[in-house]
Amino acid sequence: MRKGGLRGFSFSLKVHRSPLRRLHDVFINDDLNYFCKISSKINSVSQFRKDPFSSAWVMISPERGLEASEFGSVEVIKGPSLFSPGFEHHLGEELYAIRTKHAGFEDWQIRVIRHPHAVLSDKELTLQQEKLFSSASNSGYQEIIIEHPRSDMSLELMPKAHLVQLLQVYRQRLAHLSQQRHIKHVQLSRSVGRVAGNYFAHPHAQVVALPFENRWLEEEKQASSVYHQQSGTCLYCELINKELELRERIVSSHENFVALSPYAAKMPFETWILPRRHDSAFSSLLDSQLHGLAMILVDVLEAMNRTLSHPPYHLLLHTLPCTGDSSYHWHIEILPRLRAEAGFDMGSGLYINPTPPEEAARFLRQTLAMREVSF
Q1: Contacts (Cβ under 8 Å, ≥6 apart) of 234
Q2: 82, 94, 117, 300: most buried, per Cβ within 10 A?
Q3: What integer best gives the mean pLDDT of the chain?
Q4: 105-114 and 127-128: which strand pairing?
Q5: What is the mean pLDDT of residues 266-275?
Q6: What is the pTM of this model?
Q7: Does residue 350 surpass a pLDDT of 90?
Q8: What are phi and psi of 335, to 5 degrees?
Q9: Could you report the per-residue pLDDT of 144-191, keeping only the tens digit for each?
Q10: Taking a C-beta distance cutoff of 8 angstroms, is the pair 336, 313 a contact?
Q11: Structure confidence by residue, pLDDT tens digits, 92-136
């Protein structure tokens, strides 16, 4: 059993070795009764769900159970890291920075550098196409955004003004790279915890620009395009409206953004953040929207950390390089790494999610509610 806690009370996460192997041995008054009631019906909950944004199907399978072995695996660094002030000469070329003056000295607050171990090269793209085997020269861009001078400053703990500045830097770098020759795909990602593949223990994001499309976004674009042709509306906009009507998978909602657990969630506690205002590119984000995005990011990450005891996770920005696509809708996907894929998952192409998104959203909502009460 692993102990966790919210401000004002504590809770436990227990893995039951019964056939149900339930993760949640819950934490707020009547939750235990709630899970006792649904446990008897759990086999009827198991079902296939079609992902509206791809050709894939997902199995929601609560009886499979969720192992808690990775819970709390994200370590907080004490002291300086390679990305801390004073180590700049060990890193790649600085491409952009925000600095402030203190007592006559300039200190950086956010830095953008070339990835010190980049696998991409910003050389001219050359293609060699044959009937069976095609190749291309290594071409693209790979940058790191060092998000704060302090190594222990996680995204959700940053001062709001700093987080808004950081989102502006995200927007600026994506817009800049989108304009480079041959670029067809841009992405921004954050990996937190070794389990998620993070080898720089300092808050940072990675920005990549590639000369070919991303296959996952291509699936989303295809589904969105077909839906738009058939209905004349954006699939994502329709989804937002329907989820706000149902409420059961909503995690948090603000004036300009909605956070939800997707209907066909591929993994436990997967959460999406979507703008209510339609656009296909993150670079179109308005200054007036930045504070709202910062607030809902904090909501989701705080809820996950309190509910799941600081899990490793990926934050992935799905965006097109350019604005103006009437069918695609940029969004952020936050994917906790709570379980490993088995041979069945990889061989069948079928994601198996042991936590129904309705349950995940309910837990995250309750955590946010308790945060408000404790404040």
Answers
A1: 224, 227, 228, 278, 326, 327, 328, 329
A2: 300
A3: 85
A4: unpaired
A5: 96
A6: 0.86
A7: no
A8: -120, 100
A9: 999 999 999 999 999 999 999 999 999 999 999 999 999 999 999 999
A10: yes
A11: 899 999 998 876 667 999 999 999 889 998 888 898 888 899 999
212 is written with which tokens?
């070919």
Amino acid, res. 164: V
Q: DSSP string spanning 286-343?
A: -HHHHHHHHHHHHHHHHHHHHHHTS--EEEEEE--SSS--SS---EEEEEE--S---H
The rounded distance, in Å, linking the Cα atoms of 290 and 102 is 26
Q: How many whole angstroms separate alpha carbon 171 and alpha carbon 156?
A: 19
User: Of all helices (H) and strands (E), which one includes residue 362?
Assistant: helix 357-374
> How many Cα atoms occupy the beta-carbon half-sphere of 150 within 13 Å?
10
Report whether pLDDT(310) > 60.
Answer: yes
What is the C-alpha to C-alpha distance for residues 217 and 54, in angstroms, rounded to an integer? 9
Per DSSP, which regions of the chain are E strands? 2-6, 9-13, 24-25, 47-50, 57-60, 94-102, 105-114, 127-128, 135-136, 141-146, 185-192, 204-210, 250-253, 257-260, 271-275, 313-318, 331-336, 351-353
Show Cβ contacts of residue 41 under 8 Å, excluding neighbours closer than 6 positions: none
For the stretch 153-156, contacts whose Cβ atoms lie closer than 8 Å and that sit 24 or more positions apart, written own/partner, are: 153/203, 154/192, 154/203, 154/301, 155/190, 155/203, 155/297, 155/298, 155/301, 156/297, 156/298, 156/301, 156/302, 156/305
Q: Which amino acid is at 138?
A: N
Residue 124, classed as helix, strand or coil, is: coil
